[in-house]
Amino acid sequence: MEFYVLTISAWNVSFKMTFQIRYYDKLVPDAYHGTTHDSARQIIAKQEFIPSAGEDEYLGFGVYFFEGSELDAKEWARKRVGRRGKIAVIQAVVNLGRCLDLNVREHRKFVQDTVRHLGTKRRVPGVTDAMVINFIGANFKPEIDTVRALYPPRDPGNTRLFPGSRLWDFVRLVICVRNVRNIIKFSKCYEELL
Amino acid sequence: MKNTWFEDLKSQVEAFLDTATDEELYRALRKANYEHYMNVTGEILVIYEDSDLSFNLNEPVHVEKGRRTDIVDNSKFGLSNISTADDYNYCIAA
């Protein structure tokens, strides 16, 4: 077990505080959830998120956030509600916890191997990303708290940042929180007036 | 620092896939599909064909595959989440 020792000094007095370091305490302080005006009000009033469900979800069951980008959350909500609807954005602090981080090569390979096994060896039809993530998340311990991935630039209008650049213009970092207890705190940061 | 939980999870999934019977695999996939709703403490709305049934039972009911459930008058129920009918032919909302 590893520890982090923090020393605080003030007025000639020193305090030593010891924290246990756990791999799975990684905080994201700026996770943004775009939604409808009404849903945002419900979430704040009930202090509760209800995860999205279905196999067509990008990363399976969970509450979806855009890491570090309020604008992405606004755009997503706008697409969802159309021009006439009112949108809102909730900012949250998320503990990634046990995170299936698909930006990490080993984690991607794990998902890939599981898909191969299900689809090729066991002949399960119509295997999707969400289906595999839900399969792993629902049946095995320790449970996955969050799933994190880059939203791929598959939009044909997506271009490089500038000619010769290796960067894409359109990239979103998505966090899907399966375990809502890992949403540590949240508040509304944007709301369109009715 | 070693990421042990991930290694544990990975080895469990691999072992399961190597040894599970077809029936066990089917059950695991089915559980994955609606396990989330088992944690819902409030009322579960089950949407069945053209009618709306509402009861406190976490039991899936068959619906037409692929049907979008957002045709339901959501303002009546105030639902914040509705699933789509899936490969197992049911959809539920909470």
Give a structural overview.
The complex is a heterodimer of chains A (194) and B (94). Chain A is globular. Chain A starts with a strand and ends with a strand. Chain A has helices spanning 37-46, 70-81, 105-121, 129-139, and strands at 2-10, 13-21, 27-36, 63-67, 87-95, 99-101, 146-151, 172-177, 183-191. Chain A is α+β, with helices and mostly antiparallel strands and 194 residues long. In chain A, the strands form two sheets. Chain A has a seven-stranded mixed beta sheet with strand order 6-7-8-4-3-5-9. Chain A has a two-stranded antiparallel sheet with strand order 1-2. The longest helix of chain A is centred in the middle third of the chain and has 17 residues, at 105-121. Chain B is α+β, with helices and mostly antiparallel strands. Helices cover 35% and strands 13% of the residues of chain B. Chain B has helices spanning 4-19, 22-34, 74-77; strands at 44-48, 51-55, 92-93. In chain B, strand 1 and strand 2 (51-55) form a beta hairpin. The longest helix of chain B is centred in the N-terminal third of the chain and has 16 residues, at 4-19. Mean pLDDT of chain B is 58; it is low at 39-91. Classes of the chains: A alpha+beta (194), B alpha+beta (94). Chains A and B meet through helix 1, helix 3 and helix 4 of A and helix 1 and helix 2 of B.
